[in-house]
Hints:
Helix content is 10%, strand content 44%. By secondary structure, it is mainly β. The chain has a single domain (6-103), classed as Hypothetical Protein Aq_1857, Chain: A.
Amino acid sequence: MVLPPKVTDRAFARLAEINGSGPARALRVAVEGGGCSGFQYDLKLEEVAAPDDVVLEGAGQRVLIDPVSLPFLENAVIDFTEELIGARFVVQNPNATSSCGCGISFSM
């Protein structure tokens, strides 16, 4: 059985800030082929989960992972970071053997 990623309290808190009092949108984290290292993360907000999504919940918020992406994200940590260069959701993935400086592209 594949273990889903962990979502930090900071990521759930930021998602709650983004949603505010509007419609509750979930953060979808997917892995796609492409990018400069072979795979890339695709992060976007969605209102509806697919029937086969893994749904991670915390602080009244949801993160969605599709079944194809799940093995690539096993034991990963989904976080939110604020740095001088900007603020963003990040994936700390122990399965990635290397990653691009952009933080979006990785190889396994």
